[in-house]
Amino acid sequence: MFRKDTIAAISTGMSNSGIGIVRISGEESLQIIDQIYKGKEILSQIPSHTIHYGYIKDGDEIIDEVLVTVMHAPRTFTGEDTVEINCHGGVFVVKKILETVLKYGARPAQPGEFTKRAFLNGKMDLSQAEAVIDVIHSQNEYALKSSISQLKGSVKEKISKMREEILYHTAFIETALDDPEHISVDRYGEKLGAVVEGLLGQLGSLIESSENGRIIREGIQTVILGKPNAGKSSLLNVLSGHERAIVTDIEGTTRDVLEEQVQIHGLNLNIIDTAGIRDTDDVIEKIGVDKAKEYADTADLILYVADASRELDDNDKEIIELIRGKKTIILLNKSDLHMVMDKDFLVSYIKESYGNAQDGQEGFPVIEVSAKEEEGIKEFENVITSMFLGGDISFNNEVYITNMRQKTALQEAYQSLEKVMDSIKAQMPEDFYSIDLMDAYEVLGSITGETIGEDLVNEIFSKFCMGK
């Protein structure tokens, strides 16, 4: 599935820095470094996993003073002979060294080709390979821990166990059908049903984890709603730690959406500050209000900022209807002023507004805050952590699916196993069981890369950065 030639690329960022790394991998790595390295040793003859001081040269021209790491196959990231040249981190000098490596026999690596070779050489499965890029792109503590857990094989382990169980029962059915005189499948459907039910439970848990996985990876899509001058922009400024939004006493100051990413207890909040919800004749402001409602409709979390210093009005009542059925935290702002509206009144009003609805939304968390004095913010942060992911995450035993490709495969496997259950309940012939069992087996194999085509492999690794 891939050429065995030797590849090279810059594995550090293309900016001036203290150090730069040029990575070489393939059968001719050691021959190439011997031609361009000047030091006390001939690097192709020294022990593996050692570092050596010297110079990179092109003919008689010295390019840079370097440290060269030599690693022999198969104990390398790619499973091939690998050389890493650690040089000074100037953009020009790093590119010059790469050009020299290419001149003496390597070719430029394609995006993700080092990791692709690691996968194709059996150094990792596809779920671990995808975790590599997730580690690189992780933006918070939880995303990093989740990616490291997958890199260590947490997804691979769960998928492999399920596939082993499916394969065992498929093989038993096929063998029994080939040799009915010696192997009976009488009442086997009952036994298989219990097994499939357990597998459906495992798959269901993994599929459900994908929502938390998305939040871990992408952050919580958060929209701030409130009537004009409720303190929405002030709250955004407090959470972001700088003056992100213009704050004035003039109603309607915020007309377009403002976006900011903040981190709370290791989780990313992708916050959108919106125009104040109210009826207005101002065309531009009305567009902003309509946008606010659109964003609220698709948000993971709504922060409803209510002004405790003013009576509840029609604008607040409209917002209360907007948040019905939504995951919402109500921030009763301006608690440092004389409070005309308190928490008990607001909770009672919402409960009465929703009547006897069974959606449980009268139980919105309500927190008294002062954006001006930065009071109540710690309580708000604790509520966020409790509301998402249960407040505490362990990646030792828990697996979170953060990859849409993997989620889709899990859903397809779930559907195949549901068909098996339907066949068992309908007392269909046993060969019907094995058809759908094998479908589930195959699609689960696509997660780890055991049943996957070359085109999809190329597409996945094309999304990687060049030197990885």
List keywords for this structure.
single chain; 468 residues; alpha/beta; seven-stranded mixed sheet; 15 helices; 13 strands; 46% helix
Task: Please characterize this protein's 3D structure.
The protein is an alpha/beta fold. It has helices spanning 29-36, 91-103, 113-120, 126-137, 141-151, 154-178, 188-218, 232-240, 283-298, 314-322, 343-354, 377-387, 404-425, 430-448, 454-461; strands spanning 7-10, 17-25, 37-39, 50-58, 61-71, 82-89, 107-108, 220-225, 258-264, 267-273, 301-307, 328-333, 366-368. The strands form 2 sheets. The chain has a 7-stranded mixed beta sheet with strand order 3-4-5-6-2-1-7. A hairpin with a 6-residue loop joins strand 1 and strand 2 (17-25). The longest helix has 31 residues, at 188-218. The radius of gyration is 29 Å and the shape is flat. The two termini are 18 Å apart.
